[in-house]
């Protein structure tokens, strides 16, 4: 073997190992959550898992720990197969009947709520791994009592407020689509079901709404508005996620990412660019080292 090959081989192997490790680490992130109106789990994650601000998010952490918040983009059932109403019992809709997320089912009126009005509404879903499927959003019926656990019969299932066919790519990192919110008063819940069509897996989410804040809360404290996690928060919590989106059927398609890059879809938010840039930089350094070595006097003469 030539000296050039002996020197180059470790560098190439090292670069490949680093890139593979980075891509493998990325698979700990999954699929997404509503940002507009902000879901319960995304709102509490935005407050900070280690030091939440609202009492309800503090109680969530006291009940279930911080992991449900670091796994904010996962609330799912791997084998739902279009049978959500049959397999999720009343009172367990927000958690998808998963014990890990049981605090999301807490029936109380202090969840931070997005102020809305009847009419057209633009929905915004932060995607961390795109999947082909259908998102269906429902709102609670007139007379809904937020102090009682959410039941299927509380939702106007016959009249979804939005239905959206999701694709295998989301170049912007979001699914954005429009719908219409019906006339309601007071506190309501928006319920999302995202059923994949390339897999039996489905995802779920609850977003709290407040119709007519000024009228409903006259003389009361201003309503706490939920905030969505920033890209910096997503990146900062990336290593704490325990979610794995592999093996749910069809994920080999999603793994190609928004632009078809294998490493790209495995990361969330700002982390995607870091991996792609990091990999490019690493390969550039390796290439530069080879170039410099080959330009050294006598390099050719040293070949075996």
Short description:
29% of the residues lie in helices and 20% in strands.
Structure, explained:
With 304 residues, the protein is of the alpha+beta class. The protein folds into 2 domains: 3-23 and 260-302; 31-248, Coagulation Factor XIII, Chain A, domain 1 (Distorted Sandwich). The chain contains 9 helices and 9 strands. It has helices at residues 3-26, 40-47, 55-64, 67-70, 84-87, 213-216, 231-236, 251-254, 271-295, and strands at 32-36, 76-77, 114-116, 119-127, 133-139, 162-166, 174-181, 186-196, 202-211. Mean pLDDT is 76; it is low at 2-30, 214-219 and 247-304.
Characteristic key phrases:
single chain, 304 residues, alpha+beta, 6-stranded mixed β-sheet, 3-stranded antiparallel β-sheet, 9 helices, 9 strands, disordered N terminus
- Name the CATH architecture of the largest domain: Distorted Sandwich
Number of domain units: 2
From the N-terminal CA to the C-terminal CA, the straight-line distance is 7 Å
The shape, in one word, is globular
Runs in which pLDDT lies below 50 for 5 or more consecutive residues are 2-30, 214-219, 247-304
Proportion of β residues? Answer: 15-25%
**The CATH fourth-level homologous superfamily of the largest domain:** chitin-binding protein cbp21
Provide the CATH topology of the largest domain. Coagulation Factor XIII, Chain A, domain 1
Specify the biggest β-sheet: 6 strands, mixed
- Top CATH class of the largest domain: Mainly Beta
Oligomer: single chain
Along the chain, the helix and strand elements come as HEHHHEHEEEEEEEHHHH
Helix share bin = 25-40%
């Amino acid at each position: 073997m030539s000296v050039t090959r002996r020197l180059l081989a470790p560098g190439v192997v090292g670069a490949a190992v680093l890139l593979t490790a980075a891509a493998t680490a990325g698979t700990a992130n999954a699929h997404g959550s509503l940002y507009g109106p902000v879901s319960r789990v995304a709102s509490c994650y935005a407050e900070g898992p280690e030091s939440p601000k609202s009492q309800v998010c503090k109680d969530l952490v006291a009940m279930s720990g911080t992991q449900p918040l670091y796994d904010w983009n996962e609330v799912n059932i791997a084998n739902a197969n279009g049978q959500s109403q049959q397999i999720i019992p009343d009172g367990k809709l927000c958690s998808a009947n998963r014990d890990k997320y049981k605090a999301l089912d807490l029936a109380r009126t202090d969840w931070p709520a997005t102020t809305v009005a009847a009419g057209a509404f633009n929905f915004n879903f932060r995607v961390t791994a795109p999947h082909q499927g259908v998102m269906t959003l429902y709102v609670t019926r007139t007379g809904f009592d937020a102090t009682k656990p959410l039941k299927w019969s509380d939702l106007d299932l016959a009249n979804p407020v939005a239905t959206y066919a999701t694709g295998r790519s989301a170049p912007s990192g979001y699914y954005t689509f429009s719908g219409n919110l019906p006339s309601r008063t007071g506190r309501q819940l928006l319920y999302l079901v995202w059923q994949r069509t390339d897999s039996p897996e489905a995802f779920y989410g609850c977003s709290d709404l407040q119709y007519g804040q000024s009228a409903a809360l006259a003389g009361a404290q201003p309503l706490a508005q939920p905030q969505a996690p920033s890209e910096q928060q997503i990146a900062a919590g990336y290593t704490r996620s325990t979610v794995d989106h592999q093996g749910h059927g069809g994920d080999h398609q999603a793994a190609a990412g928004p632009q078809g890059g294998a490493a790209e879809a495995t990361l969330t938010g700002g982390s995607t660019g870091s991996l792609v840039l990091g990999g490019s930089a690493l390969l550039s350094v390796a290439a530069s080292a080879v170039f410099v070595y080959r330009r050294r006097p006598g390099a050719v003469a040293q070949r075996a």
